[in-house]
Design goal:
- With about 200 residues, the chain is mainly α.
- The protein has a single domain, classed as Four Helix Bundle (Hemerythrin (Met), subunit A) (Up-down Bundle).
- Helix content is about 80%, strand content about 0%.
- The protein is built from 6 helices and no strands.
- The protein has helices at about 15-35, 40-65, 70-95, 100-120, 130-150, 155-199.
- The longest helix has about 45 residues, at about 155-199.
- The chain is globular, with a radius of gyration of 18 Å.
- The chain starts with 14 loop residues before the first helix and ends with a helix.
Length: about 200
Amino acid sequence: MTVPDTVHDRGIWTVPNAISFGRLLCIPLFLWLLLSQDRNIEAAFLLALLGATDWVDGYIARHFDQGSEFGKVLDPVADRVLLIAGAFALLLSGSVPIWVGVLILGREALISIATVSLAAIGVRRIEVQWAGKAGALGLMFALPGFLLIDSMDASLLRALLTFVTWCFTIGGLALSYYAAFKYVPVARQALNERKGESA
């Protein structure tokens, strides 16, 4: 959810923030469906729905003056937690190729460590880039695709779903890592600004 600077800060109690909180609260339900009940289809649709709602809260924030500084932090955190939980759960269930899961978790771990480290030394918050959001959305549709593929017999529909899932996977990974590399100079600039302020 990227909120323009001209939008008023509406605080914590907004509709977009409620949606983000709801996404976080649904993660245990997804894990229960997949890992405890082996209900791949229900888990897949829930994960896809949670991924899609990321764009819903952004739309509401932009078009209904519901933006907030808190939401700018909560939304990417919810994205990251959801993506990590989804990738980790699919690795445990064997539904996703190991290299795909490792690339997703590795990228999210690096970004999380960098974000926490910069925040700890007082560096200003870095805005989320569109490539990162688009990559996360692609992966949030790719992961449910792998779950559905696992639940289907060989057919033309399964082959089509496999093709679409891999398109989302490759596209999502490419955009995610592109965004990660784009963050490097921005983070360096923010760090230099912090050093200048300290001096």
